[in-house]
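hey m, so remember when u said the tokens were messed up on ur end? i reran from scratch. heres the input so u can diff it against urs
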Amino acid sequence: MRPKDEAELAQMIRAAQGPLSLRGGDTRGPVVAGEALDLSGLSGIVLYEPGALTLVAGAGTPLAEVETVLAAQGQHLAFEPPDLRALLGRGGLSTLGGIAAANASGPRRFQAGAARDALIGIRCVDGRGDVIKSGGRVMKNVTGMDLVKLMAGAHGTLGVLSEVAFKLLPRPQMRASLCLHGLDPGPAVAAMSAAMATPYEVSGAAYLPDRRETHLRIEGFEASVTYRLDRLSGVMAAHAAQISRSEDAGSLWRSIRDVTPLAGQKGDIWRLSVQPSRAPALLGLMPTGSQTLLDWGGGRIWALVPEGTDLRAHLGAFAGHASLLRSDAALPFFPPQTPEVAALSAALRAKFDPKEILNRGMMG
């Protein structure tokens, strides 16, 4: 099924007699069982107001199309949506609806917020086939923001997004990075945490264990970037024997955003969310033959592990959670929910999807 507009989408959901597997660009997340509901027909920019820093588009609109339009006006989606096709071995085109549904966000999240923080309005169709509108089309409109944030990260289990509205930000005039060479995981995380605690507005902090490289990014107007980079270099001098600079760090941070160092290799891909201070200990527990990348100062760990490894069982209980993004093993994508969270999730699904047809089994 491929609806051409929201009305047809609602009709298809009302008529559905069994589970529906929602499909956007097929670039992220697992594919669940059910009749395929192709949302690529809900495409096109509905409203773009550069002066108001606002964009409204159909959920099936390709991200690449939107980025081209925004770049012409010197603007961007500040949460840095990642392109995980190479990492996950997928084709297709990333769509705005898929990004919103997955709350897909990159290295700038700790400074600029995640996708759900930039999402200011939605239109969606719930499991009954009813159309829901929440939020608005301007940055200052906060009506219904709770429902907007609820749908961001729900992976289509509570409603099928038909239209999304995002707030935008100006693109940085300049990007530059510091690289601290030779640090082990513990000192690297300490250095990243120290950098993010400075007033120099670090917008990216990542560690590549195999290369023992710690990267710190600063963005903004040229004079400001130069000043802050100099000051940050002074602070970081206490953390490393050698520091190098890169004044055009675009390709480096795209690689970190898209987890390119782990792409194109055999094995299962996991994503761990932890307190940065816990990251070094978890790296020490990784299975033999694993490769990792730390993003957001260590708060997110990407791991490539031997095929079939149940990383949750291998690591045991820890303060955080692990999601499985690529594997042939019959393991759940999301970690098991606590009884309290499971009860809340069930109550929400009963409210929004009483027939239990939207991406059933996606989130437990």
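this time it looks ok to me. The radius of gyration is 21 Å. if urs says something different then somethings off w ur setup not the seq
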